[in-house]
Structure formats: structure tokens, C-alpha cells
Amino acid sequence: MSQEGETLQEGRNQAGEPEIRHTQHGDISGVPDSSRAGRTTSYDIADFPPLSSKLEDWRFTPIKRLRGLDDAALQGPAPAVSVSGDDAVQVTSVPSEDPRVGSAGIPEDRVSANAWSSFREATVISVPRDAQVAEPVIVTLTGESEEPAAQHIVVDAGSNSKALVVLRHVGTAVLSQNVEFSVADGANLTVVSLQEWTDDSVHASSQQATLGRDATFKHVLVSLGGDLVRVTPSTRFTAPGGDVEMYGLTFVDDGQHLESRLFVDHSVPRCRSRVNYKSALQGENAHGVWVGDVLIRAEAEGTDTYELNRNLILNDGPRMDSVPNLEIETGLIAGAGHASTTGQLDDEHLYYLMSRGIPEDQARRLVVRGFLFEIIQQVGVEALEEQLRASLEAELARTEN
Question: Region annotation Disordered: residue ranges (predicted)?
């Protein structure tokens, strides 16, 4: 496997002043709109230019396959929402004017802004203050239409609460979606976002989280189905002591485009973030994209962050674009780094297993299982983990040997 990466830590020059060791891999200096610090945010679609491959945020995305989510009137029916789990969790439908809507983020791209201007009601899932929710909250979103639609979901975790929320996307949809996670002081929220759409579905989802003081947030993204799926998770710290972990798994098949673009905004002191995304790709014209942006602002002293992306190409034909970006505006940090690897199955691993009597096709599956199952274990719901393992087994059974 080829690998590029580095670790950056606080250093001092000969004068004893803090200095930054600038990254070489993923250097995007000089690229228009490349810095996350200056990106446009707006509720108004008119504030964003028409989509083009010349725009940094869209240079890997097959824009024509969005099927109008960037400029069409999103008047189709949104996926139906059903919620199961602990009775302590409250589920309500609220108008777009509700104060909880927009509390965790503002649209950062044209598709998200189009959805914002199109939805009329939002689903709000509230975890009360101090509640310790033992049972997972399963939110199933079932699409039944190919007409372009908009949807808005808000998950509000009260102070010192603890909960696990699963967003499971199934059925057929052409959907632009905004999801907000508001994690109050001392709260501990785990979110699992599953994309298990039918093969003809299109899904663009902006998922934004804000963390209060000493809050903990874990986001697990699993994308398996759909024609084009583009998920953009972001996390922003609003007070010291926050801790975020972001995990991702994509399995890209023939002709699929599965894209993950994440952003971690360290704007306050003494917060920690860890990112670990993995992809497996197989088949002709399978295209995976991972872009990881981490920004450490000047006031975010004591930041501790690291992001990792690893990708496995299972046969000839797929393409993987992996871009880790690390911007640092202060040298007074605990540590920062990133790494990206993309490669094919290791022949030595296969030889080791085959030399012990394991057929080649089974050996290949064992290696891929070991590579991907680390992410599935982060889900935290045994029944769901078993279903995901079965889904991956089905995908691996289709691999060309």
C-alpha cells in the first residue's frame, strides 16, 4: 500500500517562539474557497454559485447525477419517519420557524440551502436533560418516491444526558437532507447514520453537530446502497472540554458514487477529535470519495486531533479519491496529524492464509472482514451490527476474483 501522512505537534523556533510545521500532503493553499474558515454559509440558495467541478466542494461529485437537488423545486414526499425506542425520548413535528431548527448549523453548500428553503416541517428528537437512555433510539426513514424532496431532522441532547440514535435510510428516494445534532453541556450522544438505499436512489445529507462544554459526540457513518450518496458530517465545538469521534465505512459497487466530506472545527481551547474512515471498492466505475477537513483556529490552544482514511481496492476498475486537509492557526496544540492510504489486497496476507489451506476466495473475504469490521464494532447495537455484517458478506460474495 502507498501511504502519505504526517503528525504535527507544538514546536518552537530558535527565538523560543511557537511555530507551525506546515503540512505538505493535502496542501490546498492558493485554491479558491479551499480554506474552511472562509467558506460561505447561508440559508439562501442564491448566495451559492451554480454547481461546477471547478468548485472545491464539488470537484469529485458527478453533478448531473444529483437529479436536480441543487436547483429543482424539492416538492416530492420526504421519506416517512418512524421512531422506536425508550419512551423518555420525545419525538415531535415542528414548523421551520421552531427555535430548535437551525440551532446546530447553517447550510454550507447549494444543495443544503435548497433543502432548507424547501422543507416545511422538521422532525425533532429530544433527549431530556439528565436522561440516561439505555435502549437505542431507532429512526427509520423510508423513501417511496423518486421525485426530488427535502427533509429536516433535529436531534437535541439535553445537558448531562446519554443516548444512542440510529438514522436508518431505506427504500427509494431522491433526497436533500439537513440533520442537526445539538449536544448540550456534559451530554454524551452517539449517532449512527446508515444509508441502505435501493440502487437508483440519490441522497445528499448535511449532518451538523455542535458540542457544549465537556460534551461527547460519536458519529458513525455507514454507506452501502444508492446510486449517488454524498454525506457531509461536521462538528463544531462551542466550549472547552469537548470530545468527538467520527467513524465511517463505505462499500462501493459497480457504478456507485459514495462520497463522505467531513469537517471538524476546533475554535475553542482544549478539545479532542479523532476520525477513522474506511472504504472498500469493487467493480467497474465504482467511485469513492473521502475528504477530511480539520481546522484548528488561533484561539484553539491545547487541541488534540488526528484523522485517518484507509481504502481497499478489491479488483480492477474502481477509483478512490482521498484528501485529508489540516489547517493550523496556532502552534500551541497538544498534537495534530493525518494519514491516508489506498491500495489493493496485500499478497502476503493472502499467501499466509492460503498456505494454511484456506481457498483464495475465502482468504480474500477474511482480509476484507478484518479491515472493515473495526468500524462496524463502533455501532454499539448488536442486532444492527449483525445485519451490517450480513450485508457486507453479501457484498463480498459479489467480488470478482
Answer: 1-49
